[in-house]
């Protein structure tokens, strides 16, 4: 299990994933060697899987972001696998999530503008297999994006 | 910022590698894309200055940290016009278990990602923190079963 020192390290790293190793050690109140050993152990145990660069798609000209909430036709035996397999082939799909609840699958989709979205929607999304129902949520703004958890 | 940023194949390769592992050093990055260390560093630096690379996200195994449940909430605000969106946004963003808040158009007004220890813990967050927010109307919940993040159109 994690102890308070591990939590302290992860808390600091979560607050600022770009922290250099010496700065991280200092903020966590540890010497560099201890901090490094702790980080290594968190990696080995798979708690800390790494850090990923975040891309601002709007800087690359993708100004439209849509959540597509999809209910699948569950009478087809491999509905989810076939749906996800086809959705993965669409470059503009950033996320595929599955749920327990009213919605089965959610696709996070980006497009350059509304005209591009319209094309993607008609030609790539509506042609995906086993869709029983679909609704779209247009993203207006991101208010909180840090994805942190209380440690 | 009206000029469209044009990426070449090397930029794309760098972005894809950093999306996998943002801790890659400039020399490791250079080796993988066939550039010298300073050249790779300059490229990554430029992508940052252009606002394409905006930061990093820590990839933690939430289950191993004791957060076994992730729930997406669709929140509809009640009595439109009476509720201050800014008040709602400030209050919801301050809840530690709320990981992301997105303002959306459609069936709901806001989409929240909530991390909880288990279903009982989620219920506590929902009842005590979410349902008591200013202006909250209808709330719909979907428990996340699996999640796949893809590289996107680069």
Describe this structure in words.
The complex is a heterodimer of chains A (151) and B (154). Chain A has 5 helices and 5 strands, in the order αααββαββαβ. Chain A is of the alpha+beta class and 151 residues long. Chain A folds into 2 domains: 41 residues, Winged helix-like DNA-binding domain superfamily/Winged helix DNA-binding domain (Arc Repressor Mutant, subunit A, Orthogonal Bundle); 82 residues, Lrp/AsnC effector binding domain/regulation of amino acid metabolism (RAM) domain (Alpha-Beta Plaits, 2-Layer Sandwich). In chain A, β3 and β4 form a beta hairpin. Chain A is elongated, with a radius of gyration of 20 Å. Chain B is of the alpha+beta class and 154 residues long. Chain B has 2 domains: 59 residues, Winged helix-like DNA-binding domain superfamily/Winged helix DNA-binding domain (Arc Repressor Mutant, subunit A); 75 residues, 2-Layer Sandwich (Alpha-Beta Plaits). Chain B is built from 5 helices and 5 strands, in the order αααββαββαβ. In chain B, β3 and β4 form a beta hairpin. The two termini of chain B are 20 Å apart. The model of chain B has no long low-confidence stretch (mean pLDDT 92). Classes of the chains: A alpha+beta (151), B alpha+beta (154). At the A-B interface, α1, β1, β3 and β5 of A face α1, β1, α4, β3 and β4 of B. β1 of chain A pairs antiparallel with β1 of chain B, so a sheet runs across the interface.
- Count of DSSP-assigned helices of chain A: 5
Number of helices of chain B: 5
Main sheet of chain B: which strands, in order across?
A: 3-4-2-5
H/E series of chain B: HHHEEHEEHE
SSE pattern of chain A: HHHEEHEEHE
**Main pleated-sheet profile of chain B:** 4 strands, antiparallel
What about the largest sheet of chain A?
Answer: 4 strands, antiparallel
Distance between the termini of chain A: 13 Å
**Helical percentage of chain B:** 25-40%
Strand content of chain A: 25-35%
CATH superfamily grouping of the largest domain in chain B? Lrp/AsnC effector binding domain/regulation of amino acid metabolism (RAM) domain
Regions with little confidence, pLDDT below 50 for 5+ residues of chain A: none
Q: For the largest sheet of chain A, list the strands in their spatial order.
A: 3-4-2-5
For CATH, the homologous superfamily of the largest domain in chain A is named as Lrp/AsnC effector binding domain/regulation of amino acid metabolism (RAM) domain
How many strands appear in the DSSP assignment of chain A?
5
Please indicate the percent range of residues of chain B in DSSP E strands (runs of 2 or more).
Answer: 25-35%
Task: Tally the structural domains of chain A.
Answer: 2
Instruction: Give the CA-CA distance, first to last residue of chain B.
Output: 20 Å
């Amino acid at each position: 299990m994690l102890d308070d020192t591990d939590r302290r390290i992860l808390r600091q790293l979560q607050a600022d994933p770009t922290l250099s190793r010496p700065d991280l050690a200092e903020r966590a109140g540890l010497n560099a060697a201890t901090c490094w050993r702790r980080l290594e152990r968190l990696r080995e145990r798979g708690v800390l899987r790494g850090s990923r660069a975040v891309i601002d798609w709007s800087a690359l000209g993708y100004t439209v972001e849509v959540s597509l909430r999809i209910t699948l036709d569950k009478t087809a035996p491999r509905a989810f696998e076939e749906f996800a397999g086809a959705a993965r082939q669409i470059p503009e799909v950033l996320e595929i999530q599955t749920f327990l609840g009213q919605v089965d699958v959610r696709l996070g989709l980006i497009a350059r503008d509304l005209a591009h979205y319209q094309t993607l929607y008609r030609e790539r999304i509506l042609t995906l297999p086993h869709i029983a129902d679909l609704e779209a949520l247009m993203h207006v703004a991101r208010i909180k994006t840090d994805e942190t958890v209380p440690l | 910022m009206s000029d469209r940023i044009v990426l070449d194949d090397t930029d794309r390769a760098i972005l894809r590698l950093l999306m996998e592992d943002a801790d890659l050093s400039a020399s490791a990055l250079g080796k993988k894309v066939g550039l010298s260390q300073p050249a790779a560093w300059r490229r990554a630096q430029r992508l940052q200055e252009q606002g394409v690379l905006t930061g990093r996200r820590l990839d933690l195994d939430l289950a191993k940290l004791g957060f076994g449940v992730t729930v997406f909430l669709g929140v509809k605000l009640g009595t439109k016009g009476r509720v201050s969106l800014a008040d709602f946004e400030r209050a919801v963003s301050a809840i530690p278990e709320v990981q992301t808040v997105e303002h959306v158009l459609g069936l709901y007004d806001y989409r929240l990602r909530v991390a909880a220890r288990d279903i009982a813990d989620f219920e506590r967050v929902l009842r005590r923190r979410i349902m008591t927010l200013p202006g909250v109307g209808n709330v719909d919940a979907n428990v996340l079963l699996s999640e796949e993040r893809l590289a996107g159109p680069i």
